[in-house]
Amino acid sequence: MSKKDADNSLDSIVALCKRRGFVFPSSEIYDGFTAVYDFGPYGVELANNIKKEWWRAMTQLRDDIVGLDAAIFMSPKVWQASGHVKGFSDPLTECRQCHSRLRLDTLLEEAGILADEKMSEEEINNIFENNKSKIKCPNCGSSDFTPGKNFNLLVQSNLGNFTGDWSKEPIYLRGETCQGIYVNYKNVLNSTRVKIPFGIAQIGKAFRNEITTRQFIFRTREFEQMEMQYFVKPGDDMKYFEQWRQTRWQFYLDLGIKEKNLQWHKHENLVFYAQEAYDIEYKFPFGFKELEGVHARGDYDLSVHSQSSGIDLDYLDPISNEKYIPHIIETSAGVGRTFLAILTESYREERVGEELRTVLALPSKLAPIKIAIFPLLKNKPELVVRAREIFDFLKLNWRCEFDDNGNIGKRYRRQDEIGTPYCVTVDFDTLEKGEVTVRERDSMQQTKIKVENIKKYFQDKF
Ligand code: GAP
What is the reported pLDDT for 107? Predict the structure, then answer.
């Protein structure tokens, strides 16, 4: 896909998100707020359905993983011990002409110079210094940049700072959810019956002072992560790592993503403690980019927290009596990125006669609305009353929407754009013969069914 096509296809998705209430720019009436987005009425449903599928796969369908919801605020000691205060940074430069702050790896990538965010900061800095003259500021075209420096991504807050004395240690909004899992590992161990190997899963917000923030909800400063840490016996790492790679790959196929749009990226520059690190990348409109990381992290996380807190985080094997710090396999996905991948995968425009139809071909389990119910005519009370009764009946089992606005064609178009798999129309046949028309989104086929069979019909469909 050319860059222009890619921009067009991202633009179409962004426009649909705004038009149909999936995603809005934050604080838009005040000119927006960079790199922060709000999920609208259909967006929150889609995001919730993605999270529900992840939570179900992680906790409901397995008996070796338990859930957790740790707080966003944590002791600053957590972030010191984890290494985030010192080392959680991206290489940054400033354009001397327009003072835009820019990420070095993104600048290099856009100039067609081989670099990506997985290279070490030192490597990226060197490549930048050697190629400065070939790189242009995307905002003003200048090539006059300050030397690269590392910029810490942790977001500070003034929680509990009543005196305004900023010499005190800052408190951070969490930069990743998994730290809440590490510091609760012993609590979970002591309060449940989990035994190694076991996992702790968590979904929650994370915050980063991201420098490059284009590409819509792909990289935002406030975002949600779905992270699972799997605790294993040292030496078993690679066995479980491979299992988790397969499991997480399959998760995306089960969400309806085509395998040709996924690829693995193996990290070549591993941090010193990591044993192996792979990312699942999705083919977004702007190219293959990270969707999720699957990493074998060794004993690093529990060791640093044990050393730093002075608390023994060893695991005592109840059968062999062996004592050890468990090793961790991490799977870490973003809700926003999965959301964008699902939209990219589902969005299509097709010609139907003279008209262009936009459809979100979402899998039923992810669709914000499962069934829309329409009375054929708004001004016929007997149709409206019957349609309401059917809506009130179906809503007990499925997320439904009642719509009597505009002609039927317009209502279909609206539901196609939000990905509703089925529309039910109540017409005079409903009153006379007890039949409704069910229209299927993708095929647009219409079927007459008896109202008395409607629940069974949709039970079979979903
Ligand atoms: N605990 C490991 C960790 O946080 P990461 O690669 O920094 O690793 C994991 O993040 C996932 O979180 C990414 O694969 C991505 O889906 C999501 N993510 C990270 N930063 C993000 C951002 N600024 N905006 C949206 N999603 C982000």
Answer: 86
Instruction: Give the residue from 414, 415, 422, 420 showing the smallest Cα distance to 368.
Output: 420
**In the structure, which protein residues have their CB atom closer than 6 angstroms to any atom of ligand 1?**
176, 178, 208, 210, 219-220, 223, 225, 227, 290-293, 330, 332-334, 336-337
Same domain, 209 and 315: yes
Nearest ligand 1 atom to alpha carbon 293: 14
Q: Please check whether residue 65 lies inside any domain of the structure.
A: yes
Contact 296, 277 (CB under 8 A): yes
Q: Is this structure's pTM higher than 0.85?
A: yes
215 and 268 share one domain: yes
- Assess whether 304 and 430 both reside in one domain: no
- 213 & 319 share domain: yes
In a domain, 349, yes or no: no
DSSP 298: E
- For residues 186 and 266, membership in a common domain is answered with yes
Question: Which letter, b or e, does each residue of 76-89 get, where b requires 16 or more Cβ atoms within 10 Å of its Cβ?
Answer: bebbebbebbeebb
> Domain count of the chain?
2
Q: How many angstroms is it from 125 CA to the middle of ligand 1?
A: 22
Burial class (CB in 10 A: 0-12, 13-18, 19+), 286: middle
Q: What is the CATH number of the domain that holds 449?
A: 3.40.50.800
User: Within this chain, do residues 195 and 315 fall inside the same structural domain, yes or no?
Assistant: yes
Atom of ligand 1 nearest to the CA of 335: 16
Q: Which atom of ligand 1 is nearest to the CA of 221?
A: 23
Judge contact between 258 and 239, C-beta under 8 A: no
Question: Mean pLDDT of all residues in the chain?
Answer: 93
The lowest-confidence range among 160-169, 205-214, 307-316, 426-435 is 160-169
The confidence band for 73, taking pLDDT boundaries of 50, 70 and 90, is very high
Which range (157-166, 266-275, 417-426) has the least confidence?
157-166
Domain containing 393 equals 369-461
Judged by average pLDDT, the poorest of 27-36, 47-56, 212-221, 225-234 is 212-221
Say yes or no to pLDDT of 224 above 70.
yes
Q: 109 C-alpha to center of ligand 1: Å?
A: 19
